[in-house]
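Researcher: Please translate sequence to structure tokens.
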Amino acid sequence: MSGEYIQSESIGDYWEKLKAIYESRSTQWTELTKEQYDGIERSERQDSDNHLNEERLGKDSSVIDVCRYKYLPDRQVAYAITLKHKDGQTEEHYFQLNLKEEID
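Model: Translation complete:
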């Protein structure tokens, strides 16, 4: 959903920028655990930009995100985001949001 090009040297800074984008496009944000995300019974999809992000890591970006998501009823989407730093560090984030009406 993001589709934004984020430049950052640290995972923490990257996450704050990415989270702000998602929050700006939603009416409600809920943190999830991995177990809660895994328990959602919907088909899982990968973001179409994941392969492009993987190619950018270490070349023109220190941090990238790999996104998986599940569409739910009533404009809700559950996300699993893996942040990867070029030094090998990773961080997982799970959340659910309600998309604003003008976002498809």
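Researcher: Any highlights?
Model: The beta strands are 26-31, 44-46, 63-72, 76-85, 90-99.
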